[in-house]
Amino acid sequence: MVKAAVMYQVRAPLVIEDVDLLEPGPGEVLVRMVGAGICHSDWSVLQGKIPIPVPAVLGHEGAGIVERVGPGVTSVGPGDKVIISWRPHCGRCFYCVTGRPNLCDAATRARFQGTLFDGTTRFKKNGRPVHHMAMAATFAEYTVIPETGAIKVRPDAPLEKVAVVGCAVITGVGAVTTTANVEVGATVAIFGCGGVGLSAVQGAVLRGASKVIAVDVLDSKLELAGQLGATHLVNARREDPVARIRELTGGAGVDYAFEVIGNPEVMARAFESTRRGGTCVIVGVAEPEAKLSVSPFDLVLQEKRILGSLYGSLRPPVDIPRLVDLALEGRIKLEPLITRRVSLSEVNDAFERLVRGEAVRSIVTFGG
Ligand SMILES: [Zn+2]
Ligand SMILES: [Zn+2]
After folding, report:
1. N or C: which end of the chain has fewer CB within 10 A?
2. What is the whole-number distance in angstroms between the Cα of residue 361 and the centre of ligand 2?
3. Which CATH superfamily is domain 169-311 in?
4. What is the mean pLDDT of the chain?
């Protein structure tokens, strides 16, 4: 039996309860959780905006220590510190062999089924399956994940902190450095300064962007963006961000704009704020039925580009350890992303704070 935060229905509090956890199967790993970040996507799942079969153990960002491994596992062993990747990969499909494991066929299928790769769950309640969010299910004292979702990190990595590398940092930094491939001196605007947006700010700083314009509706988040290297802060509640971005860029607009909220209206503003020949990168996850409305005239006549970015277009086994190195060298700052630490029983309260904008990231800690 392990304690977990289980979603039974849409728009109802998670139930903190004991569930059964089976042993890891072939190619699977049992992880004792140390820290799990509460991400806006968990809230979107709970609101029914991102579909998942229920009941399900939520949570997709986290870090822990390998407790036991199933047959055939070779890349990690008991005692290893791991960050959990919510895009494990099969290594054999079209996307995996063409270097885009973040789009893995098998992972996409399993994610919608709420299972592991073999189509079944390791969590059970009264003999019935309890699903896994994104093959991670980090809101539990212990979880079973695929071997390729357990990314071994250096032994001196503080797990409660580097937990945020597994979603916020890889998604935000990668969107800038890899999906967009922002070049030195480029101008960048980032719409939305939660955990992913603040990581995108840091990615733009790492890439040597000349202007990093942070846009949000909360001054507290803009202040954090400023601390992390944003050169200009725009409160979209007080001023029109598109007009302000044009003003800041001599009337042209930015080379790259990132939408990190999941709101189609804001995506359209991000598109409008890019210069002729500019690129708009969509990182925020909108509802499946949502539509994006932009000017096709501008798209062609101004030769703009719109790119989607999933998990920063990165390759977790290579890039997560690199991001941890950057964090431990102080070149990516994790602490400003972490507002508070909570226990698993406080997870519903932490969601409320997230929605009210009081917290960037709360980290569930498991006392070990
Ligand atoms: Zn997330
Ligand atoms: Zn694959």
Report:
1. N
2. 30
3. NAD(P)-binding Rossmann-like Domain (3.40.50.720)
4. 97
Q: How far apart are CA 8 and CA 343, in angstroms?
A: 20
Contact 163, 296 (CB under 8 A): no
Residues with CB under 5 A from ligand 1 (ion): 39, 41, 167
Residue 367 has pLDDT above 80, yes or no: no
Q: What is the pLDDT of residues 102-113, one digit of tens each?
A: 999 999 999 999
How confident is the model over 327-366, as pLDDT tens digits?
Answer: 999 999 999 999 899 999 999 999 999 998 888 899 999 9
Cα gap 87→309, rounded to integer Å: 13
Q: What is the DSSP string of 307-334?
A: EE-SGGG--HHHHHHHHHHHHHTTSS--
Could you list which residues have their CB under 5 Å from ion ligand 2? 89-90, 93, 96, 104
Ligand index nearest the alpha carbon of residue 94? 2
The Cα–Cα gap between 68 and 29 comes to: 6
Q: Domain ranges for the chain, please list them.
A: 2-166+333-365, 169-311
The residues, ordered by sequence, that sit 6+ positions from 139 with a Cβ below 8 Å of its Cβ are 4, 5, 14, 36, 42, 57, 58, 59, 344, 347, 364
Alpha-carbon gap, residue 142 to 67, rounded angstroms: 9
User: Given phi > 0 = left and psi -120 to 50 = alpha, else beta, which region is 267?
Assistant: alpha
Least confident of 47-51, 173-177, 198-202, 257-261: 47-51
Residue 215 has pLDDT above 90, yes or no: yes
Cα separation, 145 vs 134, whole angstroms: 10
Task: Starting from the CA of residue 100, give the closest ligand.
Answer: 2
CA of 313 to the centre of ligand 2 (A): 14
Q: State the average pLDDT over residues 312-324.
A: 97
Does the domain at residues 2-166+333-365 carry the CATH identifier 3.90.180.10?
yes
Same fold, 2-166+333-365 and 169-311: no
Rounded Cα distance between 60 and 166, Å, is 8
Q: How far, in Å, CA of 131 to CA of 159, rounded?
A: 25
